[in-house]
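Dear colleague,

Following up on yesterday's call, I've attached the two folding results inline so they're easy to grep. Please treat them as preliminary; we haven't cross-checked anything against experimental data yet. The first protein's sequence and C-alpha cells come first.
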Amino acid sequence: MKKLLLVVAVVAMFAGSAIAADWNFYGSARVNTTYTKFDNSPFATPAAVAAGGSSAVFGNSGDDTSNYEQKLYGNARIGANVKVSDELTGKFEFGALGGNANIRILWGEWNFGAGSLGIGQNYTPLLMPYSNQTYSIDGFNKGDHNMSTFGMLYGSRKAMIRLKFGNFQIAAVQPRARVAVTTIDPGNGILYPMNPAPATEIKIPCIQAKYKYDFSNGHVALAGGWQTFDVVGAAKSEKVTSYVLAVGGRMDFGGIYLKGNLWGGQNVGNMVDILVSGALFSTLGNANASEFDGAGWGYADYTTATETVTDNDAFAGLLVAGYKIREGLYLEAGYGYVKTELDKDGSTKDDAVTYYLQSTIFLAPGVFLTPEVGRADFKQEGQPDATYFGIKWQINF
C-alpha cells in the first residue's frame, strides 16, 4: 500500500507540471466479503503429498471445508484519462493486486484522421466483457472475475501496438509461449505437472483482431487471434500454434438485456484465460496454484521423453440476462461453460461450469454494493466445487 501511495504522489506531481494537457483522475475502491463452502476442498492436503509426493495434486482429497474471506480486490484502482489535443490522448491505471501497485493500463493513442495508432499496455482485441460476476474463482485474487476463466472471452491487458479504424481493430500483441509439461512419479505412478517449462523460441508477435457492428438495440462482435512459437528440446524443436475464434453480442429490450459469447480454438491459454482443472482452484491463493501448472489453463501438452507436442482443443461460452428494476437497482444472472480436450486418441474432455445470481444496489452516485450467490463446479470426479454467497462493496471516485 505504501508503494501505491508513492506512485500516486509521483503521478500527481507530474500531472501538476504537465504542459497543455488535461488530466482527469479517477479511482475505484473495492472490497469483497464472501462465505464459501467447498466440496473436495482445494485447501486440504491429499495422501500423496503426506507420503512425499508432488504438491500439485491439491484439490483431490475429498475433504469439505468452509471459508470466510474479506480482502481488497486486486482490481481496485486509481488512474487518469489524459488529453493533450484532439489528436493525442493517453491513459494510465494502477491496480492493487496483492496490496502493491501494479500497472493495469499505460496507453497512448494518436488519431491520424483515417484511424488511430495506440501504443502501450491495454486490453487486447480478444475481449467480450459480458458478465458482471464478482466472485474471484481462480487463485490470483485479480478482483471481479466476470467469468474470465469460465466462458468470457478475455485476453487480459498486454503490451501491444494497435491500429483502429472505426469499429475494426487489429493489433500486434505481446506473445505468451507456454506448454503443459508432465512427468510420471515412478514411486506412485501419478502424473504430475512439472516446472519449469522448457525453452521456447518466439519469432513473431501474436496477431489479434476484432470487429463490432452496432445496431439500434445492441451489437454483434467478431474476434480472432493467432500466434506460433517453437519448443526447443535436446534433439529437436516442435512448433506450437494457437488460435481463437469468437462471436458475441448484446441486445436490449427496454429494461431487459441479454448478452453472450461463444468461442473456441487450439492451445488457447497462450492468448486468453480458461480454467478447467480443479487442482488449480483456490480463492485463498493456494501456493500450489500456478499459471505454469498443467493443461487446465488451455496449453498444449509437451512430452519430455519424446519431445513431442499434443494440441489442446478448447470450447467456451456464456449467457447473461439482466433486468433494470428501477434506477439504481439491477438484477443479473449468468451461466458459463469451458471445456478442453487433448487432440489424441483416447483423450477425454475436462470441463467446468459456473453460474450466479446477483443484484447491484446503488446507495448514492458512485456508491454501491453487489450481493451475489453462485456456484463453481469442476465437473470431473474428485475435483473441487464451491457454493458461495458474498457482497462486493465499491465506491468509485
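Below is the second protein, in the same order (sequence, then structure):
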Amino acid sequence: MALAGSGITLVQDTSYPGGVKDLSPTLRAIKDKNPDAFVGFTYPPDTILASKQAKEVGFNPKYFYASVGTAFQLYRNVMTPAGAEGVLGMGSWNAKSNPAGKAYFDAHTKKFAGKEPDRWASGACWAGTEILTSAVNKVGLDRKAIRDYVAGTTHKTIMGDIKFVGSENVGTPGTVSQWQNGEFEVVWPQKLATAKLNPNKPARK
C-alpha cells in the first residue's frame, strides 16, 4: 500500500455507490474512530454532501481533505467561507500564484459576470492553451514539429513550469490547497505554495 512505511495508520477504507444521497452513517463510523484526518476522493456533488453531513454529525478532524469539488467557487459559496475554512483539496493555482495567473483569474471573472475559475482544472486547461500558442508561434502548424516542441520544452504557465516525459507532466507535481480567508491557497509543495498550511482548522460552522 501507498502508506507503507509512512507512519500513517488507515483506520477505515470505505467506498460508496455513485449518486449516493446519504453519507452520514459512514461519517459517523469514521468519527467514532477519532482519526486525525479524513480523505475523501469524491466528485463535486459528493464533496459537498460529505462536507455538509460531516458538519451535521459533528465530525471535524484536524485535516479534512475532499476532492474534486473543493477547488470551485461553488464549494465556498455553498459551505459559506466560514464553513469552508481550513478544508483541504486538490488545487494547483490561484490568482496569487503569478502575474499571469492573476490576469487569467481577473479576465475570467469579468467575462463570466463574477464567476471565478476553479483553482484546479481550469488552470490546467489555460496552461494547455499557453503551451499550444507558444508552440505554434515557434514552429508553425506542422503537427510533428508542434509535438516535438511540446515534448522537448519546459513551458512557463500559470501553473508554473510544465515539462513532459512521455505523456506525464513532471514539471508540475500534484498539489494540495486549503481554503483560507476565502481563497483556496496552494499549501504544498512549498515551491508552488501561496500560503502556509494552517493546521488549526476551526470547528465547522
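For the second protein, one point worth flagging: The two ends are 35 Å apart (CA to CA).

Best wishes,
A.L.
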